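Customer escalation, tier 2.

The customer says the design service returned an amino acid string that "doesn't look like it belongs to this structure." They asked us to rerun it and document both sides in this ticket. The original structure tokens are below, unchanged.
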């Protein structure tokens, strides 16, 4: 079939297999063009099919030569429906990793469940020689069914305490308008922490430790975000920020629990980037559009793969003490948060409206990156060609 992008809100309901494969290849090529990293050799990535998790898996495999297991929640194609982008990304990743002689295994299912944790432990035993020396936790999920109570929690992106109003962009139409978001209820705050906080990460690490599949000196890492004051009410001081506080607290607890294995747990604060998850956060797409323009002009722009390569090579596996901030967090949002970058972004923020959008923001770059998440607008792919939407992931089919 001929596959074109189809939108529902900030979600694209189609994905292009060749385009996704090309996007993955571009990330692999970037990592291969950089020096090798003396890093982990057996890696589990939870949330490995898109965004930061996919980039972590690619750096582990092609930068460190690691065998990997990836866990994710994606859909294969059925009849005339394409698979989700993460499905195609994983198919492309596995094929390339296997070609390079690496073990690459995947598990498609609900990472919050006990069953998927058990399946993963079995795969570590059967396919990775019994132990992992790195666990990346990179889930971004809208809901979680609690494995013990069966209760379903939904995460929301809302301010706490009072309504929040600011500018936002509809990046399809280019319309910039004022939007107001009503504050979350106490229950919504609690539920968002249940979904995006650290409890599930803790459950994963407890289950892996209990099953004796963590190697001596294991490293585990999860990802967080802080961002500028402008987005504090909706992000860092909002519902998701509360979940991130919990995730960061969990890192300290895990770090203490892993001491007997000589292990360590970190949270890395990453840069704001276009992913399926960040597209859903009000205000953030407009902020990212301006940020991209400023960072590209200053020669400081990085994408997911560059961020993850820097995380592994200059922070986690550079050979010495891992540099962290006063709260023990790794910061690879350092370039985004540079005062001169933030000042320039804030100046443009004041001026931005529908008329100035194209000129003072990189909305074009935002749109392109968004389409590319689903394998569209990718150089070297002929979108008028018939393509088979049914693509196998070698370890699943
Ligand atoms: P993403 O949407 O690209 O990836 C989410 C991953 O989670 C996918 O692999 C998806 O399949 C998987 N997933 C979701 N629900 C699942 C479930 N129930 N079971 C198994 N897998 C499931 O998101 P992302 O932006 O890469 O976010 C990853 C992490 O990075 C999040 O913690 C996010 O807060 C953080 N982060 C993102 C940004 C950003 O700007 N995008 C910045 C800093 C930190």
């Amino acid at each position: 079939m001929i596959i074109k992008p189809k939108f529902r809100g900030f979600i694209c309901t189609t994905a292009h297999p060749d385009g996704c494969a090309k996007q993955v290849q571009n990330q692999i090529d970037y990592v291969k063009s950089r020096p090798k990293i003396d890093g982990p050799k057996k890696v589990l990535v939870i949330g490995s099919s898109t965004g930061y998790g996919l980039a972590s898996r690619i750096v582990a495999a092609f930068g460190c030569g690691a065998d990997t297991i990836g866990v994710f929640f994606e859909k294969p194609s059925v009849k005339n429906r394409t698979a989700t982008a993460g499905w195609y990304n994983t198919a492309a990743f596995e094929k390339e990793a296997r070609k390079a002689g690496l073990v690459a295994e995947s598990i498609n299912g609900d990472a919050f469940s006990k069953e998927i944790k058990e399946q993963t432990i079995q795969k570590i035993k059967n396919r990775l020689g019994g132990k992992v020396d790195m666990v990346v936790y990179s889930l971004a999920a809208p809901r979680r069914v609690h494995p013990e109570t069966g209760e379903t929690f939904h995460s929301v992106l809302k301010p706490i305490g009072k309504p929040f109003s600011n500018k936002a962009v509809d990046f399809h139409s280019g319309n910039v308008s004022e939007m107001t978001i009503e504050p979350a209820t106490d229950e919504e705050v609690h539920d968002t922490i249940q979904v995006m906080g650290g409890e599930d990460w803790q459950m994963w690490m407890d289950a892996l430790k209990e099953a004796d599949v963590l190697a001596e000196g294991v490293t585990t890492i999860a990802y967080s975000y802080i961002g500028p004051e402008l987005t504090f009410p909706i992000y860092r001081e909002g519902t998701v920020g509360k979940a991130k506080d919990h995730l960061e607290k969990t890192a300290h607890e895990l770090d203490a629990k892993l001491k007997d294995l000589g292990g360590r747990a970190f949270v890395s604060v990453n840069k704001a980037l276009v992913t399926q998850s960040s597209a859903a956060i009000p205000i953030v797409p407009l902020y990212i559009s301006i940020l991209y323009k400023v960072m590209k002009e200053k020669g400081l722009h990085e994408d997911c793969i560059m961020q993850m390569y820097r995380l592994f090579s200059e922070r986690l596996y550079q050979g010495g003490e891992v540099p962290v901030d006063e709260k023990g967090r790794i910061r690879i949002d350092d370039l985004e948060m540079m005062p001169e970058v933030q000042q320039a972004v804030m100046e443009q923020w004041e001026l931005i409206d529908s008329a100035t959008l194209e000129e003072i923001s990189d909305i074009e770059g935002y749109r392109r990156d968004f389409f590319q998440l689903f394998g569209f607008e990718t150089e070297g792919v002929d979108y008028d060609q018939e393509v088979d939407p049914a693509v196998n992931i070698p370890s699943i089919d």
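Tier 2 assessment: The sequence is consistent with the input. The chain has a mean pLDDT of 96. Residues 47-53, 71-74, 86, 110-112, 138-141, 223-225, 270, 272-273, 275-278 surround nicotinamide-adenine-dinucleotide (CB under 6 Å). Sent an explanation to the customer and offered a walkthrough call.
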